[in-house]
Each structure stands twice: as structure tokens, then as C-alpha cells.
Amino acid sequence: MLDFSSLLLAAALSGICLSVTMFAIWCTAPKAGFVLTVACGILVLVAHVILFWRYTKEPDPLLCQIVLALLSLGFLIICLSSMQYLGVPGYRRAVAPTLAAMAICAAVTFIGLDGVGFIITYATVTALLSAIGVMFWINGSHDRRILLVVSFLSGTCAVSFALCGMVLLGRGQWALAAAPDNWAERLNSVVAVACMTGLGALTLSLHHLQAQIELKAETMTDPLTGLMNRRALTSLYGERSFGPFMSVVMFDLDHFKRTNDVYGHPVGDQVLCRFAAVIKKYARTGVDAFRLGGEEFAVVISRMTDERAYDLASKIGVAFGTEIVATQLGPLRSTVSGGIGFGETDGRRLDDVLAEADTALYAAKRAGRNCVISRKSTAKAEPVKPALRSA
Fold first, then answer.
1. CA triplet 181, 175, 170: central angle to 5 degrees?
2. What is the pLDDT at residue 338?
3. In this structure, are 211 and 352 located in the same domain?
4. By three-state DSSP, how is residue 107 classified?
5. Of 176, 194, 218, which marks where a domain is finished?
6. I want to staple 26 with a disulfide (CB 3.0 to 4.6 A). Which of 36, 106, 115, 387 is the partner?
7. Which domain holds residue 337?
């Protein structure tokens, strides 16, 4: 059976291996900042374990203060890494109380109440680990199985530190003058090694999961406008049945080739981004916008009647007609044409609705552009009559 010193050295070795692995991962993926933060936190805990092992051999008041400060600091950094990964704001809420507890711990340890210092530190670590568990339980939006395991391991480790503090508190050991050595400390050493190893492995899994999510987002997003692309449209709606309250609007910027030829492609890109910005202004629940390629866009509208869908598409067209792009040749105002395809009571496939919208779009082009047309309404959206130069 391993003695207490062996358990501490095992914890240090495990931590070093984990931190080195995480540093290597961060070097290959610098965007994964939370991995670097976890690695730093684990290194601080490794330093704590090594110095604590030294403290068990040669007790010293100053060394005791350093050991306790490193324990709180290490778990604070790991808590911050969790907030970083989950996108939880307000780092100060974790930093300020922890630093305050560390200051109090240093003060009571300095006057000889090192037992009280251990109790305060264990309470601080318990609070930090509990906060990590709660954050992953509440804020996790990815793979729930991984996040729940993180919560469980954090909670288990928190309980083990709480037991260490409760034993000292129950025995009234306010002044130790040596490292605490009891059943709770030994249990904590085993639990801490197991939980930190598990959390390290799960950190790698979370990094892999985040990388997959980011890669999927990149493949589903148009880099110029920030809208979803054709792949995303097929992924989200390819298998959907379009009912009577669903429709697709196809938009095509008018005379866009001429805009590129006369004003240049950078100006053309600005025009595309302006139209994307107009669509985003009208985005709401049930309205998804996509750039299909070139100057072609699509908007999928759900939970709206045909009339409201037509009205929304017309408003987008009119709003875009008021947008002005400054160029070297003077102000540029562009227009857009649109066509709408509708779902039906019996349901329709995406391809069929897109085909109907495309047919209506070409009808709008033939009708003089700068309008929205559907098979259910041949009325034009009120066109903008710009005084400025138009594409």
C-alpha cells in the first residue's frame, strides 16, 4: 500500500504529464486558450504538491503560507479556465473572494494558527470546485455526457477537500506546526489524483469537441458576410417538410456584375456585406438567412403566413435600396430582386420550394428588377427611387 508521500509524488507526476500534454496541444492550437489556462493551473498545483511534500518533511511557517497560497491559486486558475471555456463572464466574482481568502489565510498562518489556515484554504478550494461543477451543469451546451462527468468529478474532489477541513475543524486543530495527516488527507490524496487525472483527460475531450464545433461552424458559414452558406441550408432544411407556414425567399442583387466591373470587387464585397447586414436587421426567431454564392441569397421563413412572409421580403428589398456605399466614383446605391416559394399543407421538399422561389426570382428580373414576386402575389415591393447613382 502506498504511503502518504508516495501519493503526493504520484499526484505531482500525474499533474506534470497532464500539463505537458496540454501545453503541446495549445502549441498546435493557440486558439484553445482554455487549454493553456488549465495547463497553468495544473502546474501551480504541481508546485503546491511538491512543496507540500517538502513541508511534510521539514515544517516551516513561510513554506506553509506558500503551500496554501499555491493550492488556492491553482484551483482559482482552473476555475477561470472553466469560465473561459463556457463563456461565463465576470472573472472578478471568482478572483476577488479567492484573493481575500488567501490574504486571511496568510495572516492567520503568520500568527501561528496554521490549522485555521488549512481550514480556510480547504473551504476556498471546496467553493471553487463546487463552482466549476455548477457552471458545467448549468452552462454546458455541448455534449452533456462529458459535461456531467466534469460536474461529478469536480463535486467529488470538492467533497474530499471539504472532509479535510471538517476533520481539522471537528478536532479543533487550530495550530498544527506540521502538515495535517489523517484519514481525510489520505483519502483526499487518492481522490485528487483520480479526479485531476480524469478532469485532465476530459479537458482534452472538451478541446476536441470544441475544435469539431468550430470546424463545423466554419464549414457552415460564409466568410465574407458571416451568414450561413448553402451547405448549412441543406444541413438544416434538406430533410424538412415545408408546411403552409414556411417559405423561402431567393434574393439576387441587381446588376451585380456591372457593380464589380465599374467599381471593383472590393466595392462589390461591401455591397454584399451591406445586404447581409440588412437581412440581419430583420432576423428573428423563425428567420434564417443564407448566402448561396456570388450575389445570391436565401431566407427561410417559418411560422409566418404567406402575406407576412411577402411583406418581410419586400421590406428587406426596400431597406437595401436605401443603403449607400461610398466609392471613388461617387455614392453607390444598389437594388435587389426577390422571389418566394411556399410550403403546402401536404408538405414540400426544400428543392421544390427553392425551384419555385427561383422561378419567381426570374419573373422579378423580367419585370424590371427591384421587386419581390411570388406565384401568390404579382405586386411589386415599392421600389426605391434613388437620386444617387445606382448599380
1. 65
2. 95
3. no
4. helix
5. 218
6. 36
7. 230-374
Residues in the chain: 391
In this structure, are 211 and 237 located in the same domain?
Answer: no
Query: Which residue is associated with the grid cell 424590371?
Result: 368
Q: How many domains does the chain have?
A: 2
Domain check: are 204 and 282 in the same one?
Answer: no
Q: Which of 309, 311, 356, 318 is nearest to 337 (CA)?
A: 318
Q: Which three cell numbers stand for residue 288?
A: 434564417
Which pLDDT tens digit goes with each residue over 6-27?
A: 767 777 777 787 778 778 777 8
Q: Are 148 and 28 in the same domain?
A: yes
Q: Report whether pLDDT(270) > 90.
A: yes
Task: Decide: 5 and 56 in contact? Cβ < 8 Å.
Answer: yes
- The residue among 158, 186, 218 that closes a domain is 218
CB burial of 295-322 (b: ≥16 within 10 Å; e: otherwise) equals: bbbbbbbbebebeebbebbbbbbbbbbe
Tens of pLDDT, residue by residue over 41-72, are 888 988 998 898 889 888 899 999 999 999 99
Q: What pLDDT is attached to residue 88? A: 86
**CA gap 222, 293 in Å, rounded:** 9
What is the distance of C-alpha 150 from the center of its chain?
Answer: 17
| DSSP character string of 146-196 | HHHHHHHHHHHHHHHHHHHHHHHHHHT----SS---SHHHHHHHHHHHHHH
